[in-house]
Amino acid sequence: MSETHGEHKTKLLDWNALVIGERLPTLSYVLTQEMIDEFRKGVMDPEAAFPTISQKVDVRPYHLVYHDDGSVNARCAFYCYNPPIPGKRITVEAWIADKYARRGKNYIVTQAVSVDEDGRLLDRVITHELKQPSEVGKKWQ
User: Fold this and answer.
1) From the DSSP assignment, how many helices (H) and strands (E) are in the chain?
2) Separation CA 121–CA 82 (nearest Å)
3) Per-residue pLDDT tens over the stretch 68-100
4) Cα–Cα distance, 11 to 9 (Å, whole number)
5) Does residue 8 lie in a domain region?
6) pLDDT of 21-30, one tens digit each?
7) Mean pLDDT, the chain, integer
8) pTM
9) Residue 7 lies in a domain
10) Distance between CA 4 and CA 12 in Å, rounded?
């Protein structure tokens, strides 16, 4: 079933049909000094070097394609290689890296890689999401 979210038409996630390796939409943006300053202010670190992580590029491409009942971040790993440079265009490639079931719960893994216009690898983000958020509180009921 397709549904319109914002200006994008998305499809309801069918975990069983989800294909590992599926490419998600590419994102591209110019990193501004203002974005860096806002990130540094938000993390309360005037020298924070990786504002790319605040762009949520690990899950934003997923939400351009799919909608679901929500998720819970089960694990996220950031690998930072080269600090981004203000004024450079950053391109983010993302894909479905894995899916698995554990203790009767469905998870998906997305991976995103950010590269600047000069081909410098900036970061890699791997996110595991529980796709049944209603399951989280059940152990305390």
Assistant:
1) 2, 8
2) 6
3) 988 888 999 989 999 999 999 999 999 999 999
4) 7
5) no
6) 999 999 999 9
7) 87
8) 0.84
9) no
10) 11
pLDDT at 53: 67
Is residue 105 assigned to a domain?
Answer: yes
Query: Cα torsion for 61, 50, 29, 85, to the nearest 10°?
Result: -160
- Structural domain of residue 93, as residue ranges? 22-140
Dist CA 107 CA 116 (whole Å) = 30
Q: Is residue 15 part of a domain?
A: no
- Residue 140, CB half-sphere, CA atoms under 13 Å: how many? 3
Per-residue pLDDT band for 1 (boundaries 50, 70, 90) equals: very low
Length of the chain: 141
Q: What average pLDDT does the segment 5-19 reach?
A: 84
**Cα–Cα distance, 78 to 55 (Å, whole number):** 13
Amino acid (1-letter code) at residue 4: T
89, two tokens: 């265009």
Structure tokens at 38: 């806002």
Q: Total domain count for the chain?
A: 1
Structure tokens at 50: 């990786």
Check residue 54 and report its DSSP letter. G
Instruction: Tell me the sheet residues that pair with 14.
Output: none
pLDDT at residue 7 is higher than 70:
no
